[in-house]
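Here is the promised in-class demo. Please do not try to memorize the tokens; focus on the logic of going from shape to residues.
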């Protein structure tokens, strides 16, 4: 279990949740030593850092689009002039393509988060590729010619997905801090976890879909100006591993 992930675990998260988070964020064996690719190629190495060094953060949101929470989150991000990365669940994209267009029109980054949010850790490369191709296709039905630079595996269960995603031009996107907002603990607690858990260059995992994410939206609205006043800036995830 990587010590860095343990250091970042919110002290209020139960032991089993901490174990699950650390396991999910672990980089698959062999990927950390993947040979660097050419500048225009994705690599199988899972990235968890921002493009720039220093006090930068990258906000990423999973499991949308959601018809209630995603538009509210987009309004918050626009108010604070922050761009984020949205990891899109294909089934939800089919249900709410107009919200995907809102995300893209606002200049946010799109990420493939699979079609049905399945655990792909034991899937064959052929099955993974079929799912990722279908997901990208439905995203591009909503946003023709959309650029999809990233892929994130549901549950952090990577299996063979990094190699397949990289071959398709999508950089596998991990995270350095997950705030546990899938079990809403209250907005003040989410703000505390963000404030105490961030480190320079961290990709932060949050959710705009998959349930009631109103606490997450409120926490983001509160934390952005606080962090900015302390000298933090907001960035895209690293493009290459």
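The designed amino acids, position by position:
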């Amino acid at each position: 279990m990587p010590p860095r992930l343990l250091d970042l675990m919110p002290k209020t998260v139960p032991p089993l949740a901490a174990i699950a988070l650390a396991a999910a964020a672990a980089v698959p064996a062999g990927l950390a030593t993947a040979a660097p690719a050419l500048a225009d190629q994705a690599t199988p190495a899972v990235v968890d850092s921002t493009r720039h060094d220093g006090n930068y953060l990258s906000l990423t949101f999973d499991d949308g689009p959601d018809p209630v929470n995603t538009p509210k989150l987009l309004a918050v991000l626009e108010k604070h002039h922050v761009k984020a990365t949205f990891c899109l669940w294909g089934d939800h994209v089919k249900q709410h393509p107009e919200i995907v267009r809102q995300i893209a029109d606002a200049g946010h980054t799109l990420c493939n988060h699979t079609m049905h949010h399945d655990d792909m850790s034991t899937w064959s490369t052929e099955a993974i590729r079929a799912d990722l191709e279908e997901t990208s296709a439905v995203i591009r039905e909503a946003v023709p010619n959309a650029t999809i630079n990233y892929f994130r595996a549901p549950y952090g269960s990577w299996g063979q997905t990094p190699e397949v995603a990289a071959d398709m031009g999508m950089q596998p996107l991990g995270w350095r801090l997950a705030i546990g907002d899938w079990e809403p603990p209250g907005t003040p607690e989410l703000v505390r976890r963000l404030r105490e858990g961030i480190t320079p260059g961290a990709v932060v995992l949050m959710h705009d879909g998959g349930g009631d994410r109103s606490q997450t939206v409120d926490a983001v609205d509160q934390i952005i100006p606080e962090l900015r006043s302390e000298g933090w800036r907001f960035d895209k995830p690293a493009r290459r591993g």
